[in-house]
Amino acid sequence: MDRGRGRxxxxxxxxxxxxxxxxxTSAVQLDNSESLRMLHVPFDNDMWFRYNSFATxxxxxxxxxxxxxxxxxxxxxxxxxxILGSICHDTWxxxxxxxxxxxxLTDLDIYGGIFRPVEGDAGDNAxxxxxxxSAHGVYVxxxxxxxxxSQTIAIPIERIDQALAKASSVSAKxxxxxxALQSAYNNLSVELLPSESKLIELRHD
Length: 205
Hints:
Blueprint: E1 2-7, E2 13-23, E3 36-40, E4 52-55, E5 65-68, E6 70-75, E7 81-85, E8 94-101, E9 104-112, E10 116-117, E11 127-133, E12 137-144, E13 151-156, H1 157-160, H2 162-165, E14 170-174, E15 180-181, E16 187-192, E17 197-204
Antiparallel strand pairs: 1-2, 2-9, 3-4, 3-6, 5-8, 6-7, 8-9, 10-11, 11-12, 12-17, 13-16, 14-15, 14-17
């Protein structure tokens, strides 16, 4: 069990990251399955994100395969599954990350806190912002809970990631559409329609 540390509202330190980690050759097995698959459950259930499944035989070494809140690792022939994740959540969603080598699952991490709240994000109760590291920078998730009004969220990059704040140039991309956004520099500004959510990736240029 791994633990990370966060801060309480009073500024003290507290443990708030716990993870179950399995490592080693064939870390997850279902009998003698030759058609093992992993289910990807999207972070948000809307028109932009879809459920998907990956065959372990096709997983590339060094690449992370993820699921949000819950996953099923299952034999596609017998349909025998192993269900992993959380039953409910209050603040943090459960994250599942898997790696494979030569068609076998070799690493499986299950942890609470897939995204962390960005402190002092937008100053508006109708919007929330979360972030987490990506392979090339930082993912930033924006949510507008107002069903009637659009929102514009502007956040200093230093609140999201200190390393990015020190970079000479930062690029931003909408993950769902793949469209590049205007260079972020010192601030990231995102417009959200009523009830809209967006996932943005920030990268060092």
